[in-house]
């Protein structure tokens, strides 16, 4: 796997080595040993999968300690714009984001460390999206930010009138009003 660094330290794009022939393709989608050597030591404990249609926007979500989560995400079918937002108070990149297009054709994966909010928008008619998480889902520790916070300046690559949100995702706080954020100086692992 090739690791592509982004503008925010710790947030990386993973490009797999793809082997193609007349039969199709093969690639190793995950190796714990290689991930620990090239990205960081993380023990993934839960895999999740979602299916969504065009215009669905999920996010911007995170979990608070002691259930903070790193995520390794990828697309099995379709295409998404995936976004990680630094929400660590005191970070030199606080409030900044990295976005990457993940597709069934590029096979890229995106690693979002603890201390970041995560979301994605669906760019195709249908998407199947997979997450690896390094901590278990804990509903009482959920947190979220508004997907349309002007201070974040995220272009979700979908016209606003086509965006489909859950009722819950319609009512999250702006970053400036956030009642809870991570501390950059605290070890989240």
From TrEMBL:
Keyword terms: Isomerase
Entry superkingdom: Bacteria
Function field: Catalyzes the epimerization of the C3' and C5'positions of dTDP-6-deoxy-D-xylo-4-hexulose, forming dTDP-6-deoxy-L-lyxo-4-hexulose.
Classification via SUPFAM superfamilies: RmlC-like cupins (SSF51182)
A GO cellular component entry from the record: cytosol
Subunit structure, as described in the record: Homodimer.
Keyword Isomerase: yes
Enzyme class: isomerase
EC numbers on record: 5.1.3.13
Family to which this protein belongs: Belongs to the dTDP-4-dehydrorhamnose 3,5-epimerase family.
Catalytic residues as annotated in Swiss-Prot or TrEMBL: 61 (proton acceptor), 131 (proton donor)
Protein name: dTDP-4-dehydrorhamnose 3,5-epimerase
Gene Ontology molecular function, alphabetical: dTDP-4-dehydrorhamnose 3,5-epimerase activity
A Gene Ontology biological process term: dTDP-rhamnose biosynthetic process
UniProt pathway: Carbohydrate biosynthesis; dTDP-L-rhamnose biosynthesis
InterPro entries listed in its UniProt record: RmlC-like, RmlC-like_jellyroll, RmlC_Cupin_sf
Record site feature (Participates in a stacking interaction with the thymidine ring of dTDP-4-oxo-6-deoxyglucose), residues: 137
Pfam family, one: dTDP_sugar_isom
Catalytic activity: dTDP-4-dehydro-6-deoxy-alpha-D-glucose = dTDP-4-dehydro-beta-L-rhamnose
